[in-house]
Amino acid sequence: MRLTVSKLSRFMLRGLFIVLPIVITIELVRWVFMTVEGWLSPSLETFVPPHWYIPGMALIAFLLICVLIGFSAYSRRGARLWRIPGRVLAAIPGINKIYGIIQDLFEVMSGENFEDESVVMVKLPNSEVELIGIVTKKGTEQNDRIADLLGEEQLAVFLPMAYNVGGYMIMVPKSCTRNLDMKPAEALQLVLSGGLGSKKAPDTSVK
């Protein structure tokens, strides 16, 4: 095979597309590991003798703390207790915006606060074009600012944009949507990647 500049360029680009996601993922994991290790290791070393301490113990301790916090949050008293730090951050001007965005992002990615059939296909009016969206509010919900703006047969749907962290929130009739058998996190990943990162097509059957 004769090598040319154009072929070498294509080989290099293909190699970059293979290597860079691996390198970036490893670096992100390493950054998280080093951050948690540097944050907790001084406190942990006060309880563990220096000759017993092994790098990585702080990360294990952090995961165990998260397990304990998650377990305690299942009780009413525990849930109220762990809501206090969030309420404090939400009351600080400026910081409350950052905290709110991060909290909402994690809630969307976890999918815990979404009901079944939260991912829908939204049909644009007078068009055959459809967009994947995530139902965030329903008109039947009580004591909610967004839900109060909706009719009983309306939905608030978030439409994420490909290769972007932004999106649109639209209010549409239920008749303009059809449910997808997909989790919100899967829908976000599918849309944000422009559909290029998923090999498996979603089940678009109506429920």
Automatic annotation (TrEMBL):
Pfam families membership: DUF502
Keyword list, A-Z: Membrane, Transmembrane, Transmembrane helix
Spans through the membrane: 12-33, 53-74
Protein name per the record: Putative membrane protein
Native organism: Aliidiomarina maris
